[in-house]
Amino acid sequence: MNKYNPARVALGRLPTPIERLETLSKKYKKNIWIKRDDLSETALSGNKVRKLEYIVAEALENKADVLVTWGAVQSNHCRATAIAAARLGMKSHLVLRGSEPNEADGNLLIDKLVNSRISYQTPDEYGKMDKTYELLQTQYEKEGKKTFRIPVGGSNETGLWGYINCARELVSDFKNIGFNPEAIVCATGSGGTQGGLILGADLHQIDGQIFGINVCDNKRYFENKIGEDINLWLEKYSPATSKATQLQTNIIEGYVGEGYGKASAEIFETIREVAELEGILLDPVYTGKAFHGMISEIENGCLARFQDILFIHTGGIFGIFPHKENMV
Description:
By secondary structure, this protein is α/β, with parallel strands linked by helices. It folds into 2 domains: 18-47 and 156-326, Rossmann fold (3-Layer(aba) Sandwich), CATH 3.40.50.1100; 48-154, Rossmann fold. The chain has 11 helices and 10 strands. Strands 1-2-10-7-8-9 form a 6-stranded mixed beta sheet, sandwiched between helices. Strands 5-4-3-6 form a 4-stranded parallel beta sheet, sandwiched between helices. Helix 3 (76-87) links the parallel strand 3 (66-72) and strand 4. Helix 2 (47-61) packs across helix 3 (76-87). The longest helix has 19 residues, at 219-237. It starts with 17 loop residues before the first strand and ends in a 15-residue tail after the last strand.
């Protein structure tokens, strides 16, 4: 494969640390480590930072003034995009699915603090992204500004570079600590983190299997979405390579619950357990569900056969606060 690296803007504090979960490893009789991408920055934290480093660089190359993206009202990606734009002297416009809440909390509060323009849309309106973007593009052109479109979650062929780069970090992590995980687990919400890890593991010769625990949609959706993103990456960055049919997408289903952004009592219990035993904060939308899924599969599922396991902490701390009534 051609290992060409595209332009990148340094937004995160990378590399992030990797730590052993001492108490939980003893409790579940496994060797469990965690990659702390929740520490990739302070406000601009989490997995979205890695993707945006490459996507925003592309926007700057296109001489864009306004970053336009989509997400839920409490979207980590939208918050990260809004902060990145503010840091770089750009503007952001967030198209959020749902109505404006009575109280701005969590990610939404930060969106407003950095003065992002926000449009709230019904699910039907939200699905018409091409039309919305055309209208916003025209609106900003009248103001003398150029827009740049970023997909949901920053998950496209450019965004995949974020976790290709993370896989390169992991090679160094594993060498330094003498750890060789058989399984690497992450939350999958738009596919870019898992897709980047799959490509990165192939490029950097990581032996462990990559597992994504989907927090929305289903296994077939993510197999298709991740496969499409990987093939677009190959076309754009490594055109001499055949399509990545040999790269396996492992999705662990069964932990979406009532839907995206909706967490059950057992998810909140897992969040409390990890906080109490390890002093690490998970969120109810992504990492809480994924960690709960990982522990469940360790006890009685597809991860039971593995002894050495790595969890990718993709951030989301601000998502805790809108669910505070379930946390205590």
